[in-house]
Specification:
heterodimer, A: 116 residues, mainly beta, seven-stranded mixed beta sheet, four-stranded antiparallel beta sheet, 11 strands, 0% helix, globular, B: 112 residues, six-stranded mixed beta sheet, 57% strand
């Protein structure tokens, strides 16, 4: 089955520790995205990547870092510099090829991060 | 800069009633997406609207797109409790990035 997986589903960390969230897709999509969602709020874009070895900052990139060494994988590191890291993190991917599904984003199940 | 606004932000409605959620966007785009999010869950794709006048229907939900008015609507017919969720619209931000810009979301609560 094609899809996007995120792990872990729940993550608990102490303040001051870096933590890495995993995102893998087998949809052969070129573009991948990381969003943050706070309770009762919409989605805020953290980083996105349209091609391997290239990525761009989104609206709230401070305190986060990413890498895109493989097409299938786009891990997100939440660093100790992120002041309020507790949130629900969603990864998505999309195809850039022409056609009906172009740009439509498919979402992973999410990782809920709690930092105390 | 593309902005996407939804209204209402919160909608409480009774089962059996009809209602419409509106999605306005500020610059030209010919692709609009509707997503559903259940509490604590991820986003699920509902509709993809690709051209002016496009209309898609699935069960009690019907979505339409008017690119000239920069408006999409999500119409709910004879609401049932299972439709309770948050609904997001998203518009392609053209140019080099082609990111999706999401609306603020509409929290729909269907009361028995």
């Amino acid at each position: 089955d094609g899809g996007i997986t995120q792990s872990p589903k729940y993550l608990f960390r102490k303040e001051g520790q870096n933590v890495t969230l995993s995102c893998e897709q087998n949809l052969n999509h070129d573009a991948m995205y990381w969003y943050r969602q706070d309770p009762g709020q919409g989605l805020r874009l953290i980083y996105y990547s349209q091609i391997v070895n290239d990525f761009q900052k989104g609206d709230i990139a401070e305190g986060y870092s990413v890498s895109r060494e493989k097409k299938e994988s786009f891990p997100l590191t939440v660093t100790s510099a992120q002041k309020n890291p507790t949130a629900f993190y969603l990864c998505a991917s999309s195809s850039q090829r022409t056609g009906g599904e172009r740009y439509e984003q498919y979402f992973g199940p999410g990782t809920r991060l709690t930092v105390t | 800069e593309l902005k996407v606004e939804q209204n209402p932000l919160f909608l409480s409605m009774q089962e059996g009633k009809n209602y419409t959620i509106y999605c306005n966007y500020s610059t030209t785009s010919d692709r609009l997406y509707w997503y559903r999010q259940d509490p604590g869950k991820s986003l699920e794709s509902l509709f993809v609207l690709l051209s002016n006048g496009a209309v898609k229907q699935e069960g009690r939900l019907m979505a339409s797109l008017d690119t000239k008015a920069r408006l999409s609507t999500l119409h709910i017919t004879a609401a049932v409790h299972d439709l309770s969720a948050t609904y997001f619209c998203a518009v392609v931000n053209g140019g080099a990035t082609n990111k999706l810009i999401f609306g603020t979301g509409t929290l729909l609560a269907v009361q028995p």
